[in-house]
Amino acid sequence: MRILIIEDDPLIGDGLYHGLSKLSFTADWFQNGKLGADALNSASYDAVVLDLGLPDCDGMVILQTWRQTNHDIPVLILTARDALPDRLAGLNSGADDYLCKPFALDEVAARLVALIRRSKGRAAADIRCGALTLDTAAKTATLRGQSLPLTRHEYMLLEMLLLQPNFIHSRAQIEDKLYGWEQEIESNAIEVHVYNLRKKIGKDFIRNHRNLGYQIGIAPE
């Protein structure tokens, strides 16, 4: 899951960026509101964490502009504006959730997972594929009832494929979800992640469509 963070406070922004990255999210952080708003058109994000009190523009205006231009991405407002009229204004302007500062990182992560899950039409946190179960809330996987050890990027790829099992994900789309703009990508990184997942789950679990991309194949029994 790739998250866009627009937050001008360096301490909060840095904490969100590194904290969410450790929790198996890919995060891009902008302190400038206008640059952050434009970033939504440059990458495929799953959700946005948006501050309202930005120095160069009002976060509420950014949100309203997105909604007026039919950007339906889930938006979590994270702000110091805790008065009821502010919360109502945010939700009525198109925010999907509203969280006041100070906050706990785990709660931000949980709210993001819930927003993304609902945006993809899923009610439960668990995704089941045969004998494989992915817990998107805990960011863990089990196979035949046993814990399945995965690296951060292996988990992220597995989650991406399972959330859209009928969709063929191109190599470029996978790279876009797994790596932020500031991260270097090895030329064969995606192939290595696919190989490792097949080795841990089953050789036919991930199907390779030549020149197109990857898709969930045969569910493990």
From TrEMBL:
Is Hydrolase one of the keywords?
A: no
Positions where 4-aspartylphosphate occurs in the chain = D51
- Record bears the keyword Aminoacyl-tRNA synthetase: no
GO terms for MF: phosphorelay response regulator activity; transcription cis-regulatory region binding
* Ranges of residues in domain OmpR/PhoB-type: 124-218
Positions of the Response regulatory domain: 2-116
**Cross-referenced SUPFAM superfamilies, in alphabetical order?**
C-terminal effector domain of the bipartite response regulators, CheY-like
Q: Which UniProt keywords apply?
A: Cytoplasm, DNA-binding, Phosphoprotein, Transcription, Transcription regulation, Two-component regulatory system
| GO annotations of cellular component type | cytosol; protein-DNA complex
- Please name the GO terms of the biological process aspect recorded for this protein, alphabetically: regulation of DNA-templated transcription
Q: Where in the cell is it found?
A: Cytoplasm
According to the entry, DNA is bound by residues in 124-218
> Can you tell which superkingdom this protein's organism belongs to?
Bacteria
**InterPro entries for this protein:** CheY-like_superfamily, OmpR/PhoB-type_DNA-bd, Sig_transdc_resp-reg_C-effctor, Sig_transdc_resp-reg_receiver, WalR-like, WH-like_DNA-bd_sf
Pfam families documented for this protein: Response_reg (PF00072), Trans_reg_C (PF00486)
Q: Which CDD domains match?
A: REC_OmpR_PmrA-like, trans_reg_C
Main localization is cytoplasm
Quote the protein name from its UniProt record: Uncharacterized protein
| Species annotation | Simonsiella muelleri ATCC 29453
